[in-house]
Write a structure and sequence with these properties.
globular, binds ligand T3D, 2-enoyl-CoA Hydratase, Chain A, domain 1, alpha/beta
């Protein structure tokens, strides 16, 4: 296990080829300030580039996952008499973070230890898989403070749960409790609080020590297919499978199957 205290705002640990990123502003429910968003994007980039890392978990310190944008920062802005230019901040900070999660060719898992609100909910939605503690909830809180949806929520949420449910969440900002979130496909699995991290770590380690090249191709495939018709998706799959078919991992997978043993993948 490797722990690196890179920043107090974001704890970074690597264990069994899994990088665990813990948002660490528990006093404000891990709300995002500029530094935290930037730090998260940088550590995601590190994990993406590190061949010793096969999967990433994002979670929160304390009782929350993330309460979205730090509203004290916004209040301070109003008190200084500044005009908000939210679009620029979203493009400069939130967008690179969300894109990094969606495009890095490694599984990224959100471990929802508590509430995920606003951009914190957007962060959870951007992850490939969501595991939740029984006490967790997800809230598209934007409209409650007079904002539209951001951080990729308008893109991800309808794709996950359908337009009607997504708009209800966005219009009301009402929190969706973990059990309901699991029922509608918003989270993958719900666990008792003390089991969330052990279970998520084991699951991530399983992926990180599997055929990681294939997992990266699968993520690229699924992302691409979101904007393709079937004909084009079938062509793209064929192209990707051409790549996978030439990998050492495919040869090992087939050989292990025929020899009735567990495969030893190298991610190449
Ligand atoms: O501005 C831009 O750049 C555009 C981008 C916008 C993206 C967004 O995310 S907008 C949406 C921002 N987030 C929210 O609107 C959620 C605000 N928080 C809440 O509604 C509630 O805190 C929760 C429902 C998440 C949890 O409620 P509860 O009752 O469990 O906790 P609490 O008592 O409200 O919060 C505990 C503390 O955290 C409290 O501080 P205190 O009183 O103990 O000193 C609270 O002020 C603080 N806190 C919670 N969320 C935020 C926050 N402080 C700053 N910013 C927050 N977002």
């Amino acid at each position: 296990m490797v722990s690196r205290p890179v920043s107090d705002l974001l704890l970074v640990e690597t264990d069994r080829r899994v990088t665990i990123l813990t948002l660490n502003r528990p006093d404000v429910l891990n709300a995002f300030n500029n530094e935290l968003i930037t730090e998260l994007a940088l550590r995601l980039r590190d994990a993406e580039r590190d061949v010793e890392v096969g999967a990433v978990i994002i979670t929160g310190a304390g009782r929350a996952f993330c309460a979205g944008q730090d509203l004290q920062d916004r209040r301070a802005m109003f008190e200084r008499g500044e005009t908000p230019h939210l679009g620029a901040g979203l493009r400069e900070r939130y967008k690179p973070m969300i894109l990094r999660i969606r495009t890095m060719e490694k599984p990224v898992i959100a471990a929802l230890n508590g509430v995920a609100a606003g951009a914190g909910c957007g962060l959870a939605l951007a992850c490939d898989i969501r595991m939740a503690a029984e006490s967790a909830s997800l809230s598209l809180a934007f409209a409650r403070v007079g904002l539209a949806a951001d951080s990729g929520a308008s893109y991800m949420l309808p794709r996950l749960i359908g337009l009607g449910r997504a708009l209800e969440m966005a219009y009301t900002g009402d929190p969706v409790p973990a059990a309901e979130a699991e029922r509608i496909g918003l989270v993958n699995h719900v666990y008792p609080a003390d089991e969330l991290m052990p279970r998520t770590r084991d699951f991530a380690a399983r992926l990180a020590n599997g055929a990681t090249l294939a997992l990266g191709l699968i993520k690229r495939d699924f992302n691409r297919a979101l904007s393709l018709d079937l004909d084009a998706a079938l062509d793209y799959e064929s192209y990707q499978q051409e790549v996978a078919g030439r990998s050492d991992d495919f040869r090992e997978g087939v050989t292990a199957f025929v020899e009735k043993r567990q495969p030893k993948y190298r991610g190449s």
